[in-house]
């Protein structure tokens, strides 16, 4: 089992964040036009501005300061955000953040990442996140790395350039961010207004790059049962491609056919009901998931 709290994972989180930032910076700098559409709604410059807004929010969280980007009502909006309203937060932030010069954006992004990497906060200490969830410092690093990787994929695809995504870096999103958040508190991040399954549903997530972890959904909440607990379905996955699928960049059928994911277990038909509730922003592991260019999902 992967040691999610060990120093090796913390060192890997540092390496992953620095590497993803450097790669994104090089990719954007090599582009001749920041107005090229990276997604259906965002240009390359918009996309970098979005990632920068997250990085500067995290700097503010760790340093206990105001967010550098002045957005009216941001803290109140963040406190009530769930996975299905993240897109509204993204639109609100970008509507009040006018900077689109790629040189300025990348300079600020690198400064923010430098400040994050210089933090003396313990990797297991927690800060407030969207929906009043509690996320560890390591989780912030893992989440920002995933943002850089997924949006880097958007930009590279628009520029028709290669964008390899290391599985060991993508896997941090699950161990350090998602699973650790569920062990602590996810606040109101889960949209409990959605239709819930009739029965408790347990899904085991397996990858050679992560700890094997089971999530259980029931009674309008989700939790991690003890190791060895029974499960209805399992999802074995390659983290980089799985993340692209969960954030709507590639389709489910494509991921299954390529064996990016393998689904099994005694009751795999319960998986769609589970992921109707426990999903990423605008991403679904269900037949209706769309491939192709994603909107402002991550």
In a nutshell, what does this entry contain?
The protein has 298 residues and is an alpha+beta fold.
Structure explained in plain terms:
With 298 residues, this protein is of the alpha+beta class. It has 2 domains: 7-184, Up-down Bundle (Four Helix Bundle (Hemerythrin (Met), subunit A)); 201-277, Nonspecific Lipid-transfer Protein, Chain A (2-Layer Sandwich), CATH 3.30.1050.10. The chain is built from 11 helices and 7 strands. It has helices spanning 7-29, 44-63, 74-79, 86-95, 102-117, 137-159, 167-170, 172-184, 239-246, 252-257, 271-277; strands spanning 126-128, 134-136, 201-206, 213-218, 221-223, 233-237, 261-264. The protein has a 5-stranded mixed sheet with strand order 5-4-3-6-7. A two-stranded antiparallel ribbon has the order 1-2. A hairpin with a 5-residue loop joins strand 1 (126-128) and strand 2. Helix 2 (44-63) runs parallel beside helix 5 (102-117) and helix 2 packs antiparallel against helix 6 (137-159). The two termini are 28 Å apart. The model is unreliable at 283-297 (pLDDT under 50).
Could you list some keywords that capture this structure?
single chain, 298 residues, alpha+beta, Four Helix Bundle (Hemerythrin (Met), subunit A), Nonspecific Lipid-transfer Protein, Chain A, 5-stranded mixed β-sheet, two-stranded antiparallel sheet, 11 helices, 7 strands, 46% helix
